[in-house]
Amino acid sequence: MDYNNIRKLLDKYWEGESSVQEEAQLRDFFAGTEIPEDLKPYRPLFQFFKMEQDKKLNGNFDEKLIQQLESSDKPVSNVRKLPYYLMRVAATGLLLFSIYFVNQQWNQSANETVAVEELTPEEVYEQTKEALLLVSAKLNKGTDVANDGMSKMNKATRVIK
Amino acid sequence: MSNRRKDEMSLEDFTHLILPIKNKLFRFSLRIVGNVAEAEDVVQEVFIKVWKKRSDLANYSNVEAWCMTLTKNLSIDKLRSKHRRADSFKEGFDIPTAKGENPYHQTAYNDTFERVQKLLEDLPEKQRMVMQLRDIEGLAYQEIADALDISLQQVKVNLFRARQQIRKRLVNSESYGL
């Protein structure tokens, strides 16, 4: 190999006069195994440059970035600002509560259905009548109280007159 | 204003036109912040900024240089806000050790790597950035001038000084067996 050409290129390099292509040529040369003794001190530098060119971002960088870009376009709601684990805790709590509530309701209504079924039609009739009479009696009592109040008012009006 | 949306860049355009320079930006940031995770954050921030300004992209003659400038500024901000370059700097360059197949190889590899790393590290910031953009990223002088927002003459002067300094120290360390 013509090392003199490399030496010339190197001189240009140190003076800052080499082109981008010539610099690539130097890096390729020093990546090889046959380096004359006088050029060996410079090998680490050009090897370093070549190694540095291989440094890359993690493979999942694009994916993460695109997600960020997409979400940067949407207005951020308050819910989205909640940390993910908090949202999970809240969702689990809500689910457990719902199961408990539905279960309670179901048991209750099941018990009532059984109670009604145990009565004969006559008994149901009696119970309904009793309930209605009770309501009616209470209503009458209310009317009496109101009447009483009215008469007192009338009396008071007369006194004022 | 109203016809802006029509020219606006789509996510697909973005991934084809701008995303490919990510590793260039990453290495540039890494040279400044010296830490892989932080450099990754910087690149992400740069792209988010560019994405938010995508309707103005036509106003930038050289988008890559603009990204470089953003990377440089964000990296320097990050570095200055943390003041922990000395500790974190090694961490970012530990990755290649995985390449070494046997312990001897690995040690030799790391010695070389760390020695040159140290030489670059000792250069003034501007010289280091110019050298990174030229010798690792292969940018033209004008592109470096745009990215760093300095004159063409300054690019040449900084590169010349950086290379002279490195050359001197490479030859010295060789002869003294350092």
Strand and helix layout:
The complex is a heterodimer of chains A (161) and B (178).
Chain A: H1 3-15, H2 20-31, H3 43-53, H4 61-73, H5 78-81, H6 84-117, H7 121-160
Helix pairs in contact in A: 1-2, 2-3
Chain B: H1 4-7, H2 11-17, H3 22-33, H4 36-52, H5 63-82, H6 85-91, H7 103-121, H8 125-136, H9 141-148, H10 152-175
Helix pairs in contact in B: 3-4, 3-5, 4-5, 5-9, 8-10, 9-10
Number of helices of chain A: 7
Specify the helix fraction band of chain A: over 70%
Radius of gyration of chain A: 47 Å
Distance between the termini of chain B: 63 Å
Count of alpha and pi helical runs of chain B: 10
Rg of chain B, Cα atoms, Å: 19 Å
Count of strand segments of chain B: 0
In short:
Chain A has helices at residues 3-15, 20-31, 43-53, 61-73, 78-81, 84-117, 121-160. Chain A is mainly alpha-helical.
Q: Describe it for me?
A:
- The complex is a heterodimer of chains A (161) and B (178).
- Chain A has 161 residues and is mainly alpha-helical.
- Among the domains of chain A are: 3-53, no CATH class; 121-161.
- Chain A is 79% helix and 0% strand.
- Chain A has helices at residues 3-15, 20-31, 43-53, 61-73, 78-81, 84-117, 121-160.
- In chain A, helix 1 (3-15) crosses helix 2.
- The radius of gyration of chain A is 47 Å and the shape is rod-shaped.
- Chain A starts with a helix and ends with a helix.
- Chain B is an all-alpha fold.
- Chain B folds into two domains: 1-92, RNA polymerase sigma factor, region 2, helix turn helix motif (Rna Polymerase Sigma Factor, Chain: A); 123-178, Winged helix-like DNA-binding domain superfamily/Winged helix DNA-binding domain (Arc Repressor Mutant, subunit A, Orthogonal Bundle).
- Helix content of chain B is 73%, strand content 0%.
- Chain B contains ten helices and no strands.
- In chain B, helix 5 crosses helix 9.
- Residues 88-102 of chain B have low confidence and may be disordered.
- Chains A and B meet through helix 1, helix 2, helix 3 and helix 4 of A and helix 2, helix 3, helix 4, helix 7 and helix 8 of B.
